[in-house]
Design brief:
The chain folds into 4 domains: about 45 residues, N-terminal domain of TfIIb, CATH 2.20.25; about 190 residues, Rossmann fold (3-Layer(aba) Sandwich); about 110 residues, 3-Layer(aba) Sandwich (Dimethylsulfoxide Reductase, domain 2); about 120 residues, Barwin-like endoglucanases (Beta Barrel), CATH 2.40.40.20. About 25% of the residues lie in helices and about 20% in strands. The chain has a 7-stranded mixed β-sheet with strand order 5-4-15-14-13-6-7, covered by helices on one side. Strand 23 and strand 24 form a beta hairpin. The longest helix has 19 residues. The radius of gyration is 23 Å and the shape is globular.
Length: about 525
Amino acid sequence: MEQTRQAVHLAATVCPFCGVGCGLVVEGENAFPLRYHPITQGSLSIRGWSTGELSRSPLRVKGASVRSPNGSPQPIEISQAIELIVERLQSLRDRYGSEVIGILGSARLTNEENRLIRQLAVALGTPHLDSFQRLGYLPINSVGLGSLEEASTINVLAVDLAHRFPQVFKRVSEALKRGTIVRFFDSRQVQLARMVTGHVRPLPGQELSTFIGTGKEGHGTQNSEEVVLVSSEIALQGQGVKAVEGLQGHKVMFLTDYVNQKGMIDAGVRPFPNGASAYEMLQRALTGDLKALLIFADDPFEFFPELATQAFSQIDFIVVVDSVETQGMKYAHVILPGALLAEKEGTFTNFEGRVQTLEPVTSPSAGLTERQILEGILRLLGETPEVSESEPFSVNSTSIEPDNPTEERPFIVSLDSGTFWNNHALAKASITVWREMRRPFVDFPDGYVIVNPEDARELGIRMFAPVRVESADGEVTLPANIDERAARGTLLVPMFLWEKVGKALGALQFDSSLKIPIFRPTAVKIVK
């Protein structure tokens, strides 16, 4: 019997993790790279390959709920939940004014949804609009991946490409094979460091100034075929403003952390003039000045669990809309189910500024997307204000300088981005990604500090031994993870300890220009 074959259309979507924007198709729980996609070109990172797992994750939010008087979640119809949200917001606004309301948008949402979030902020009259997924973003017009093929020299500043941006790491590796000069400015001994033409190891926080200095000396003279790669790591060390100013005139590739980080910010999800940033909203909650917080696919607990716990316990009304479970839902008064990018139509913007279209691979688990939820809230509010285009994102001339080692405190402690995805909601919802991200924590469930092997030998420090790290402002004790990833004279802490270690050592500071918290590389000593 002759068999006929029916062509099956597989909808194209995007890897929902980093901002490179790899195109893929999903069939069941399996994801496949698009071979002729301008970015993917037939390959994906382990995060991209796992995209199909998310739709069937046990951590999916499948219905709406409200908090009962005893604190437990009770199911509710989505339409009723939306009515309750509007009623409570109007009541709080009438009683206290619009500035007691804050809204967090997300780089996990489409451009269209983020524009609606901005419209909601205008409708409510609040200037407090932002996202924790804006942290580290810089207003740099990035060149595209194709520039790596034309470059004679590639300078990588403080980016662990293999961990953070595997697709870009692949392109840089190919450039090396073609004979392109690749220089790596980073204290860490990571995979790229073993491959490049030259590995320059400045102290943490001094990668940018070292690169600019080599140019002045004539070793890195700016030319049209030279490309500079940077990411949020520069900004999170307090060097964001200096990077925006110091790299002017260079061909810069700014790699965004999240899938639609650029699109989110272009849509205007950032503080209005006189508005509080995401971090400042939590601080306002502690003083009673923020009484309602609407969270769309964001999670303040990812990097700042202590502040978030204190703030959420003080907020009168919390709404969380997300496709997967987050820690913030434990405190939410209303929870609404969102949708994955693979379940919705719309557009997103990758780090290059390339706007790509999404097709729904399947329907949302609860039948609605964030776009429909936002439209429902705006409709009940009865306010559809005209929202002007957001002003270009800019910074002013301030920077936070890193410490230098001293005789008393000969080490510099800094953040290590190798664990960037460890507390991310989507990473937890994917079995494959979660397994890969959590491997180091089999031995170090509560975290660690990375110590260079030679420093460890000189100080008599053994693997897993408690290490007391002291700065001028405080101290913290963590088990030692002895690894050559850390250069001599440096200590590295994983990103999920940003708040704990930063507060203890005085390294957690606030960049008033970018309106973000940063971890200033700080001089410390080790006390046995």
